[in-house]
Structures are given as structure tokens and as C-alpha cells.
Amino acid sequence: ASLASREQSEKTLIFFCSDNGGPENLGADNGELRGEKGYLYEGGVRVPCIMRWPSVLQPARRVESMMHIADLLPTLLMAAGVPQSPELTIDGIEQWSTIRDGAPPKREEVLLNLNPFQAAIRLGPWKLIENGKTSTNATEVDGKPTMELFNIENDPFETTDLASKEPAQMQRLLRRLDELRSQAVPANIPPNKQPADFKVPAVW
User: Fold this and answer.
1) N or C: less crowded end of the chain, CB within 10 Å?
2) Which residues, other chains included, contact 195 with Cβ-Cβ below 8 Å and sequence gap of 6+?
3) Alpha-carbon distance 25 to 122, whole Å?
4) Residue 182 burial (CB < 10 Å; 0-12/13-18/19+)?
5) What's this model's pTM, rounded to 2 decimal places?
6) What kind and span of H or E run contains 2?
7) Which one, of 87, 93, 89, lies nearest residue 108 by Cα?
8) pLDDT by residue (tens digit) across 95-140?
């Protein structure tokens, strides 16, 4: 209403997104999605995103392709007509053409988390979860170590673990997870605190 009163509605992109799934102990309801905030099942990592820009975006349109919050910066730069500096290295992928025009998705991979006690990664429809019952803030594995594999496109509620039935996919995702683990700085959670002289890299 405030934008409309200033005749700015057609010129303004409104964006809403949660940063994680809801915490069930505080009354959140993640529907049929498994898990909640602090865990790597879909209930903890799949979030709502709503965009409104009447003069640019088609109303009531759904985008089902995989996106990551890191994509927000290059996407908004593109929406605003601001060229991205070739000297700027960022993790995000520009998704504006997918959102606005329905162009083919540009992201095939999302690293959901990676620390000494649990991890998860998506490659296309496949999702590998290491120690899914362990919280992302845990300092040890909760129970016996586990590896689970799900086809999220066919099974968004993560009801069927395919780890034993899809060994080739398991190995593919494990190799990629190992590659990323070899590149990662130590997780900043106890007992793995960053040393006092640790400096954030100039380019992530």
C-alpha cells in the first residue's frame, strides 16, 4: 500500500525468502517435508521464495528449478541491469532469465552443508546426506554414522533411501563431496575454532 501510494509498485521488486526451514519446537510446520531447521533433510533446507514486480514478472508463476540463496546477488544485479565485474568471483549463479522468462535452469549443484560431523549435497535430482540425524551445530555424530541417498525429484519427502540400490550415484556424489571437503576451510564450530590469526580470504 505504501508503494502504491507513491506510485512505485510497478518500479519495485519485492523479494521474500526464509533462510532455513521452520523449527518445529517453536510451532513451525514444514508440511510433508522431512526434518526442520538445523538438519539437512528438505524440511530444514528447502524454503519459500516469493518475488513480486508487476511490470516485469508474470503473476502466479512457479519456478521449480534448483536455486541457492547465493544466487541472489548476481540475479538482482542482472535484474537491475548492472553488469557483474569480471574481477569479482562469487559462488552465486545468475538466475534472472529463469525466473523472468522460464529459461532452462542454470544450477545443477548445491552444497547444503559441510562440516566434520555431517554434510549434504545435491547434484541434479540426487541428494546425498551424511549423518542426517546430526544437527548442523553438533560437535559429534548423533548415533551410528549414516549415508543416505534420495532422488528429490521423485521423492521430495525423502521417504526412500536409495544408497544400496544406486551405488554409481552414491560414488559420484561422494567423490564430489570429497573434492569440496578438500577445498574447505575448517568449520568454525567447537571444538574446531578458527585460530586467532585466521583471515577470511579476499575472494571466496
Assistant:
1) N
2) none
3) 27
4) exposed
5) 0.86
6) helix 2-5
7) 93
8) 999 999 999 989 999 999 998 889 999 999 999 999 999 998 888 8
Sheet with strand 109-114: strands edge to edge:
109-114, 119-123, 126-130, 147-151
Residue 194 has a pLDDT of 57
Kind and range of the H or E run holding 148: strand 147-151
| Coil vs helix vs strand at 11 | helix
Q: Quick one: DSSP state of residue 108? A: -
CA distance 67 to 64: 9
Whole-angstrom distance between the N-terminal and C-terminal Cα of the chain?
Answer: 39
Q: How many CB atoms lie within 10 A of CB 156?
A: 16
